[in-house]
Design goal:
By secondary structure, the protein is of the alpha/beta class. It has one domain: 3-Layer(aba) Sandwich (Rossmann fold), CATH 3.40.50. It has a 5-stranded parallel sheet, sandwiched between helices. The longest helix is centred in the first third of the chain and has 28 residues. 48% of the residues lie in helices and 15% in strands.
Length: 191
């Protein structure tokens, strides 16, 4: 009986390591294809707004990346996407819109989706703001988040390329581990 338990434990350990390595490979692949201004619309996926009304470091990096991209491609319009959590004084989308406007992005280039509470809703609700028939979109989010975002966009019949924002070093391991679990759940459940 004891030998059987060791065999099961070994199989679970090997399976866990395999899943961990596989999901890590998927996270790296998510940063392709890199956006080149081809799509007329971009979506910035929300992240936490701190209680003091400032963006979390993850959201700050996404916004800095969005500003650089929008400055490089002035024809691109952007949808800022994210609702308001219990601890957040404003919606993620409202904070993002304010940030982009203060950074000099023209108001007529920024659309706001402020009802979503998940990555799937970010994309689904943002899709409703696209002109009819528009299916090409650029996703701007943290590097670790892009694989799942692309998968979910595909479920919504969106054709995407991506712009990768760096992940804060202080929370990188925690966020990557959490994203691996979310990615596996998404592949099993579908969203």
């Amino acid at each position: 009986m004891r030998k059987g338990m060791l065999g099961v434990a070994g199989a679970i350990l090997i399976g866990g390591i395999t899943l961990y390595l596989w999901s890590g490979t998927l996270l790296e692949r998510g940063m392709q294809p890199q956006a080149d201004g081809t799509n007329a619309y971009a979506i910035v996926l929300g992240a936490k707004v701190n209680e003091n009304g400032e963006p979390s470091l993850s959201l700050q990096y996404r916004l800095e990346t969005a500003v650089a991209y929008l400055e490089q491609y002035p024809h691109v319009k952007v949808i800022v996407s994210g609702g308001q959590g219990k601890e957040e004084p404003v919606s993620e989308a409202e904070l993002m819109q304010t940030y982009l406007l203060e950074a000099g992005i023209a108001a007529d280039r920024v659309l706001q989706e402020n009802a979503s509470t998940s990555t799937f809703e970010n994309l689904s609700f943002s899709k409703k703001l696209l002109p009819e028939g528009e299916t090409g979109v650029t996703i701007i989010s943290s590097d670790f988040h892009l694989t799942r975002a692309q998968y979910l966009a595909g479920k919504l019949d969106l054709e995407v390329d991506v712009v990768s924002a760096r992940t804060p070093k202080s929370v990188e391991e925690k966020l990557r581990l959490r994203e691996r679990a979310a990615l596996l759940k998404t592949y099993v459940v579908g969203y």
